[in-house]
Amino acid sequence: MAKRKETELEKLAMQFAQYLQKEKQEGKSLPLSMIIQQIINAIMKHERQIYLNQDVDNYANGYYDRTLGLTFGKLNLKIPRVRYGNKFYPSLLPEKWKRVDKEYENLLLALLSNGYSKAKIKQTLKKLGLPYCEEDMEDILDLVYQHLQAYKNSILPEEIFAVFIDAYHAKMRDENEKLTNISIYLAVAIDMEGYKQILGYWIKKGKENKSFWIEVFQDMISRGLKKVSIFVSDDFSGLTDVVNQFFPYSDHRLCWTHMKRNLRRKFSKREYSLLNKHLTFVKESLTKDEALGHWENFLKELSNLNPSLSKQYEKKSENY
């Protein structure tokens, strides 16, 4: 029975990995949209309470669903309603039917990237147009800060079946209003019962490296994580070494889609077609030995075009 459960979990994990990669190909990030969605829903619920504090004869009246399409993904929002009248509408949301612009998206992302600083979160909330008094703004600020800190400080399960590490790249304005490149790295898990859970997020200016991943893994371990069966990620710089260092018995699978995208970027259409032919044979193989044979053919073809890159992929063959 245990063996069957592991097989089902592995199948679920791979399906989820494929879904995450499909989202990423479209420029989206499911874990990121999940975090933003939870924060917006919490703020809107508090906005309704502020409204009801002023309209004491009115009452909460449930929610209605609305989707908000953003560059990084679709948000499934629960819009709070009041029982009497139609004057209440959350200030955090864009006006009805108004197209969401990039500046609005950047402000939502700034809530995450400024998660360590209450002052910066407060500044972002004001830029989002929340028209409340100082006391109410402080309440909303505390609410957002508590949500963000929960992702940073929550106790993690000791054992997790699969951890998916995703990245979303964006341009944000710094304290001098200059645009700077940032990356939001997110870890989402499938636990031993098959449930999904966001483990945390980490902000990095510039490119990731081994020391950055050491900090990320030390953070997860300090919060209770001890054992992971499978890590799934893009080929982030330094990550494979750190997985081997902290979780030497875990399987680390690199993203197939990310590899193919890199090859497409590096080679001509004709050259990529030759390489992709071998990769297609690998994916369609019925046995491990057959797949390994096609992988060797891929490496040979790649070696004719770029020997150093072929050696890099050869070193990480087990991860693919």
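Next protein, fold it too.
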Amino acid sequence: NNAGIAFKVNATEPFGEQAEVTMRTNFWGTLWVCHALFPLLRPNARVVNVSSFVSKRSLDKCSPELQAKLRRTDMADEELCLMMGEFVTAAQSGAHEAQGWPNSAYGTSKIGVTVLSRIQARVLSETRSGDGILLNACCPGW
């Protein structure tokens, strides 16, 4: 799953719009494709979600409270979806940094992809434990 867009640094669109469009493509697009295709996975399937090294840098810029939430190993995808929606809402009102989010729509969307991948890997191992399905996220760099 390689969904990825980023606005240029000098983009004129308001940050809230950038956050909404970026999250819809990078995070929600990945989630929706996974929901559609996971029922088709055969035993020993391999899934790779493409994240970014920017996700780590962006996570480091989150408040300690947000970092702790995003690093939880028991998070459900519904909770992550709520958090990603909260980021977009906060970005649209200009309150994202005050709420502990980084000032990067791309970075936050890729935090979402990385955390989603951890959740999906855990859920697949619990619900299809004998199938040997492997799910990873990668950060290819350039």
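About the second fold: The domain at 15-138 is CATH 3.40.50.720 (Rossmann fold).
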